[in-house]
Amino acid sequence: MDQSILHLDLDAFFVAVQCKIEPKLKGKPLIVGGQGGRGVVAACSYEARHFGVHSAMPMGLALQLCPDAKVISGDMEAYSQQSHIVTEIIADAAPMFEKASIDEFYIDASGMDKFFGAFKWALELRKKIIKESGLPISMAMSVNKTVSKIATGEYKPNAQKLISAGTEKNFLAPLAVEKIPGIGAQTASFLHDMGVRTIATLREMPLKFLISAFGKNGISLWNKANGIDHSLVVPYSEQKSISTESTFDADTIDVKRLKSILIAMVEKVAFQLREQKKLTSCVTVKIRYSNFDTETKQIHIPYTSSDHILLQTILQLFDKLYNRRMLIRLVGVRLSNLVHGNHQISLFDDTEEDINLYEAMDFIKHKHGVEKLVRATTMGVSSRVRMEMNAFSGKIKKDLINK
Fold it and tell me: In 3-state terms, what secondary structure has residue 81?
């Protein structure tokens, strides 16, 4: 039996929340993002998009295209709160759902056809969300997550589309390769250089060639281009934190080495944040002395998943925390107060160069592995320490899944 996978995506979510808070903003060109001259667009209204404005665009260029646009600073607290409202509505109605980000959800509605129709149920759920949350939302249903997500993006705003089983390839064929989830600017540019611009062309590429070019992700690209996606809807559970720590073979007082290990830890957990489409606003550093005394220090920061912000914060915390000048046997890093959100969502004050850098870094890590691209300052971190960091993070992930 074919699956019925529903994808729900809140339309221009940040803008919609701002308009809900301040109704007089409705219908006006709005930009959410960094106020500085080198800031970027995190989100924009459809009225602003009419002028060519889009997310991740430099703010200066956006205002040249749409000089009458009103620029609003982001409010992640408000966005997280409104996202929670929608989540509760879905949780009350859906047999199983996955929260993929702050503004999108997947629901496995398979088997509902024996009652009154999965798509009819989805239409009623959409109406309920709009009525009870006051936020606009689009939806699409197909046999898998990939096709449903692409269809939602293709037909929004106010989308409610059904891609019937067996029509996936015809639907996907004329679309640009960028429409496939997971294909960012770097991957798209690579494909364009090979003359691959449409999904139809991508699925004609030999699988061996895609594997040689993109590693194991080449298989995923080929499957998605052919409308194949066996990934399951993962039952939603709120993750509280992401952390990693390392106990040394020999206690140390080498501050340079300790900071190198902390930097390696930040690289790892920040990448995990972006992989899971999450942001953090609470950072904690932990140290354990040779006499087993354990101390921690934490600080609240604006929501982010950016390496450079987390690195600066964690090194400052370590400098404040390590004041006894005793031998240390363990250091650790924990990111908490997590909310769902894409990497660019946090970049209200970052630059276009920052965004491009992180996209390029994550592209390489996706293809070759997270440890294949590290900062020069962490080159001396031993493989044993990195393995221990991986093992600890894996244990945390396993514990969360079991819960």
Answer: helix
Return the domain boundaries, the chain. Answer: 1-156, 171-225, 241-402
DSSP state of 96: S
pTM, two decimals, is 0.71
Average predicted confidence (pLDDT) for the chain: 85
Q: Is 204 a catalytic residue?
A: no
Catalytic residue among 104, 245, 352, 359: 104
Task: Give phi and psi for 31, each to the nearest 5.
Answer: -130, 130
In this structure, which CATH number among 1.10.275.10, 3.40.30.10, 1.10.150.20, 3.40.190.170 belongs to the domain 171-225? Answer: 1.10.150.20
SS3 243: strand
For residue range 216-268, list pLDDT tens digits in order.
889 999 999 999 999 999 887 777 889 999 988 899 999 999 999 999 999 88
Strand partners, 140: 7, 161
Exposed / middle / buried, residue 293 (Cβ in 10 Å: 0-12, 13-18, 19+):
exposed
Burial class (CB in 10 A: 0-12, 13-18, 19+), 22: exposed
Q: Amino acid letter at 184?
A: G
